[in-house]
Amino acid sequence: MNETVVGVVGIVALFFCLVARLPVGMALLIVGAGGIWVIDGGRAAIATMSSETYTSVTAYSLSIIPLFVLMGNMAGAAGYSRRLYEAANAWIGRFRGGLASATVLGCAAFAAVSGSSVATAVTIGKVALPQMKRFGYADGLATGSVAAGGTLGILIPPSTGFVLYAVLTEESIGRLFIAGILPGIILALLFVAVIVAVTVLRPSEGPVGPSVDAAGIALATLRSLPLVGVILVSIGGIYIGVFTPVEAAGVGATLVSALALSTGAVRVREMPEIFLDTVTMTAMLYLIVIGAHVFGPFLALTHIPETLSIELKELGFGPYGTLLLILVAYVVMGMFLDGLAMLVVTLPVVYPIVTGAGFDPIWFGVIAVIVIEMGLITPPVGINVFVVKGVADGVPMGTIFRGVLPFWFAMAVCLAILVLFPEVALFLPNRMG
Amino acid sequence: MTENLQDLLAGVRARSERLLRAFATLGGVILFGITLLVSASVFCRYALNQPILGDKELVEIGLSLVVMMAMPFAGLSGAHIRVDMLDPHIGPFGRYLGDAFARAASCVVLLLLVRKTWEKTLDAHEFGDVTNMIEIPVWIAYGSITVGMGLFALVLAGQFAGQLLQGPAGHE
Asked: Which pLDDT band holds residue B97 (cuts at 50, 70, 90)?
């Protein structure tokens, strides 16, 4: 059988496996190994599985995954998300729509210690939603701000999306992290602009929140400072070149743990549960990495990425036409597929096309992560919406989806800004120490 | 299925869960050790001008233990990401068949992987393969993959057997 045909059959088989409820990592592993078996024989397939598994689980650069997951879990268990939200709330909660804006800013700040959108939405949602309910916020705006704000978790570093992108494309994790900072801030500000616009048009949806006096503001700010300090040390350390990303993750996790344990925010007896959550998520992410590392060589053997790249060039859409096609495909796929799954399944094909068209790989990493974010709040699968539904008892799913719609358009605007002005993503990484 | 058999399966599942939970938590303790090691390495480099020799190798080998000690528990607790977009449309029997296929196919592939990594473990042990700087035996990493993926395969085999014994009725 022709290698390209094997590749096409492999891709169809991959989608069949996903529909058949196979875990994403396992589906990639099975189809990748099966494909190599057909093309190069069983010995090569099993050897690839074995060597790629060994390489993945002993890769020093990948230790960033469990270290940052530990840092986020420790900060979540210590209740630091509440402190960040309270600080944002103290500053802007008294304005119309201020509680929703504080939610978004709280999410943006917590995203700087958590690499997960789901974790960000859950931890901030648990604190912010009851508060917004108490002050009579419309359910749509309240839940929408949490679901959308939570997506910042995978754009603002540290980000599991960037780590996977880096693993699959061999780009620098540090540069990707730093590239996510400015777009993350811009997106958070666009979310706040959405909230302002909604509350100007329909003031009853976001009434003014509690007024906090100067002493209250100072106290809330002071309480958030230790975590802000950790964020500045770990992410700032990567930027100025003091730490490698792995070291930043290790130092960040150590500082948050020391802070949480020394202040009694986390007790030693709670540690086993935090460890268990951390390593379970780590194993989940590693299975995807292992699967992707076996699926990648299979696709390379089929020459599908090169063939597709050549075909797309011959269609004459030009670089931006090709990019638009890819983005539309991503947005549509994001409606049905988990974001990380979409990334690992598509990148081996899409990455050579994008770089072949002359786009910067770091810039495209940011674009890909924002499109994943859009998928997180797009029906019918938008996982952040389901997560928020779990926290916001009694709010219908339709209301939440309607609530996130304006935020989805804000993401599209952010995407357009990045396409028009790539420097927004590349300015900081190009000036790294 | 008889009540006795159901009780037996529930007992096996509960014991396995406790064991694998403990195994994964131990992996978490190793991870915490890695966290401290990375920080200590940074401190020693900047404050004492004396990097910790072989710190990266310790992280690499430790990481293989962390990941593989958690892998079977992640499988048992259903933590691995799945695409469930068509679940409502394929019905209970479709989900039953899908799960049976997923578990059987995963089990076969994992067993092939385990057989190979077991051979690699023995080879690395026999030839004394070690890391470059502080000569940590490489068989530890291969061995951890063998044990972790082997237990993961056992979990899947157990789930497959339980599913067959239970039948399609009541399958989620």
From this structure: very high
For A349, B4, B101, B137, B160, the CA distances from B165, given in Å and listed in that order, are 42, 13, 15, 43, 9
- The tokens describing A17, both together, are 């496996």
Phi-psi category of residue B78: left, alpha or beta, with phi > 0 → left and psi -120 to 50 → alpha: left
User: What span, in angstroms and rounded, lies between the C-alpha atoms of A28 and A21?
Assistant: 13
Alpha-carbon separation of residue A267 from A77, A223, A226, A270 (angstroms): 10, 19, 18, 5
* C-alpha of B126 from chain center: 25
Report the greatest alpha carbon distance in chain A.
74
Q: Which of B19, B58, B82 is best to mutate for the A interface (most A CBs within 10 A)?
A: B82
Q: Give which of A164, A178, A116 is closest to A348, Cα–Cα.
A: A164
The per-residue pLDDT for A209 is: 82
- Alpha-helical regions (H) of A303-336: 304-315, 318-334
**CB B66, CB B94: distance < 8 Å:** no
CB atoms B67 and A22 under 8 Å: no
Helix (H/G/I), strand (E/B), else coil: A83? helix
What pLDDT, on a 0 to 100 scale, did the predictor assign at position A210?
Answer: 81
- As for the ipTM of the complex, it is 0.94
Cα angle for residues A360, A361, A362 (degrees, 5° grid): 95
Structure tokens at A172: 């620098």
Amino acid at A227: L
Instruction: Find out whether A340 and A115 touch, Cβ atoms under 8 Å.
Output: no
d(CA B94, CA A407): 36
Closest CA to A141 of A113, A99, A85, A173: A99
Residue A118 belongs to what H/E stretch?
helix A117-134
CA distance A395 to A390: 9
**Per residue in A382-419, pLDDT tens?**
778 888 888 887 888 889 999 999 999 999 999 999 99
Q: Which residues of chain A have pLDDT under 70?
A: 381, 433
The reported pLDDT for the residue numbered A391 is 83
Q: Which amino acid is at A155?
A: L
Beta-carbon contacts of residue A67 (< 8 Å; ≥ 6 apart): A246, A249, A250, A252, A253, B31, B34, B35, B38
Of the candidates B86, B113, B144, which has its C-beta nearest A49's C-beta? B113
CB contact under 8 A, B79 and A18: no
Q: Distance (Å, rounded) from C-alpha B74 to C-alpha A341?
A: 17
Question: What residues contact A42, with CB distance under 8 A and at least 6 apart?
Answer: none
- Quick one: tokens of B40? 């200590």
Distance of CA B151 to the CA centre of its chain: 7
Q: Which candidate from B25, B38, B142 shows the least CB-CB separation from A54?
A: B142
Q: What is the pLDDT of residue A25?
A: 92
pTM assigned to the model:
0.88
> Does B124 reach chain A within 8 Å, measured CB to CB?
no
C-alpha distance across the termini of chain A, in Å: 51
- The reply to whether B10 touches chain A by the CB within 8 Å rule is no
B86 band by pLDDT with thresholds 50, 70 and 90: confident
Q: Whose CA is closest to A77, among A253, A203, A292, A239?
A: A253
* Range of weakest confidence among A41-50, A317-326, B36-45, B102-111: A317-326
CA dist., res. B166 & res. A260, Å (int): 45
Chain A touched by B27 (CB under 8 Å): yes
